[in-house]
């Protein structure tokens, strides 16, 4: 197959739908954060997240395994485990269903799913979280999250409306976009600057 010339490739993001173009831009911004800066921001996000979790007082927490330069919060999750919280990682059941959460503790053996995301090798113990921590590609001031476009977290929050949700992201990823029909707002967004947005 003949590949488009470089001049055409450079224009491809501008030809994408608005949301896809926005995701491309935000992911590039996140990718370009210098590692020492990212590590400092991750520590700040973890600090603010631990403070917020104490206010939510959950017993079971859905967390995530970072990919694509998402905030790396493993030290925070380790502290939550030591404090006695039951942690769980998300599993993709199908492309049209809500996520399933399975028990996880630091040190569990992991493997990659079909999307290349690490998941626990043992997935027998399903967990229903009281609180879900969700990474964001972008977010707005109304607590709406921009993800990768699969709709997995929106379907999950729609299926379990009583579950609390906290998005985590870097402050530079705050942007303006209009929520679509199936978008659901999170309860709060945490960045390295603290609680950036909150919904009662």
Care to describe what's here?
There is one protein chain. The chain is an alpha/beta fold. It has a single domain, classed as 3-Layer(aba) Sandwich (Rossmann fold). It has a seven-stranded mixed beta sheet with strand order 3-2-1-6-9-10-11, sandwiched between helices. A two-stranded antiparallel sheet has the order 4-5. It has a two-stranded antiparallel ribbon with strand order 7-8. It is globular. The N terminus is likely disordered.
Could you name the key traits of this structure?
single chain, 200 residues, alpha/beta, Rossmann fold, 7-stranded mixed β-sheet, two-stranded antiparallel sheet, 6 helices, 30% helix, 22% strand, disordered N terminus
Summarize this structure briefly:
Substrate binds at residue 70. The protein is an alpha/beta fold and 200 residues long.
**Biggest sheet: strands side by side, in what order?**
3-2-1-6-9-10-11
How many strand segments? Answer: 11
Distance between the termini: 53 Å
The proportion of residues in beta strands is: 15-25%
What is the CATH first-level class name? Alpha Beta
CATH fold descriptor: Rossmann fold
Structural class determined from secondary elements: alpha/beta
Percent helix range = 25-40%
Return Rg in Å.
17 Å
Total domains, how many? 1
> Largest sheet, described in full?
7 strands, mixed
Number of helices: 6
Query: Mind telling me the CATH superfamily name?
Result: NagB/RpiA/CoA transferase-like
Question: What is the CATH architecture descriptor?
Answer: 3-Layer(aba) Sandwich
- Helix/strand order: HHHHEHEEEEEEEHEEE
């Amino acid at each position: 197959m003949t590949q488009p010339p470089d001049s055409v490739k450079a224009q491809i993001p501008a030809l994408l739908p608005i949301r896809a173009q926005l995701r491309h831009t935000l992911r590039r911004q996140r990718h370009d954060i210098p590692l020492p800066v990212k590590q400092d921001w991750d520590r700040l996000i973890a600090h603010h997240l631990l403070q917020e979790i104490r206010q939510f007082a959950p017993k079971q927490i859905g967390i995530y395994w970072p990919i694509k330069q998402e905030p790396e919060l493993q030290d925070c999750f380790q502290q939550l485990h030591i404090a006695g919280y039951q942690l769980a990682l998300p599993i993709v059941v199908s492309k049209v269903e809500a996520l399933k959460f399975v028990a996880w503790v630091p040190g569990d053996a992991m493997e990659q799913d079909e999307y290349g995301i690490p998941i626990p090798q043992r997935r027998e113990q399903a967990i229903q979280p009281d609180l879900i921590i969700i990474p964001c590609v972008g977010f707005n001031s109304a607590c709406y999250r921009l993800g990768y476009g699969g709709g997995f977290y929106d379907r999950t929050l729609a299926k379990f409306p009583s579950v609390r949700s906290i998005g985590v992201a870097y402050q530079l990823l705050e942007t303006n976009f209009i929520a679509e029909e199936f978008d659901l707002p999170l309860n709060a967004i945490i960045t390295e600057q603290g609680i950036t947005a909150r919904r009662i």
